Amino acid sequence: MSRAAVAAIIYPILFILCVVPLFFVPASALFGGLTRGKSAPPQFKVEDEYETVRGHPEKRSKKFLNNKEMLWKSAVVIYKASTIGCPSSFQCLTLMDAMSKFSQNTCVRFKEWTGETDYVDLVLIDSSTEILGGAEGLGRKGGKQLFMINKETFHEFVILHELGHVLGLIDEVRRPDRDNFIDVFPNNIRPDQRHFFQKHNRTDVNLLGKPFDHESIMLYASGAGAKGGILWRHIQPAYKSKSHGLILLQNLHLSHGDIHTINDLYRCRGKSHI
């Protein structure tokens, strides 16, 4: 039998056995399930901007935060979504559902633009690009700022991720302390994607004492940005969990950590979990 014939048989089998099952397992189950019975990962102390007042919520103030000007005033995000056919289109309903996930669990609110100076403008990206979405700046930039979603991947998890950036959340893989929790493999990442894995400067972000969150909506899948096709990206991913060498899939929902971080940033009271 020729090599080509053998490859035609073996590769589909490997794909079915190794890759297909991963699409049916959420990242949290994958990470938690495979670590049972093993030693717990090392615990690292994470710097907390509110450490001196952590036990006194009434004393929390924006003055303790880095880049406090990035927070939306009165925890109200002004948005404009004239390009997606609100209020009755599928895209608009998906956007509203995503916004409600934040509003139901935090003190953050969303208000449609009526001429305000600072606002986010939702723009649809051409479907020919591989980019799922993007947010211009971190938190409130000032003036008009873009909030972009690929028209072909207008899914709630993409919107949740980008709204996280709009509110001030950073990508987990870009945490300044990420090397304590994951191994990043620059040689596996496409050159045009490497900037998505550059660590933030500690003085630019707020960690708030919260460790790396493997269930965060702000965490890329391990294969995101990696070279090659879907099977190769699982064999040679962009990063792996350091504690057990696991690859992780894209999270689809807000985590408890996401909610807690937003509540800390905006000093919400009486809201602490999903």
TrEMBL record:
Cofactor comment: Binds 1 zinc ion per subunit.
Spans through the membrane: 6-31
Broad EC category: hydrolase
Keywords: Hydrolase, Membrane, Metal-binding, Metalloprotease, Protease, Transmembrane, Transmembrane helix, Zinc
GO biological process: one example: proteolysis
Pfam families: Astacin
Domain of life the protein comes from: Eukaryota
Catalytic activity, EC: 3.4.24.-
Active site residues according to the UniProt entry: E162
Entry coiled-coil feature ranges: none
Molecular function terms, GO-annotated: metalloendopeptidase activity; zinc ion binding
Segments forming domain Peptidase M12A: 63-269
Cofactors named for this entry: Zn(2+)
Protein name (Swiss-Prot/TrEMBL): Metalloendopeptidase
The organism of origin for this protein: Bemisia tabaci (Sweetpotato whitefly)
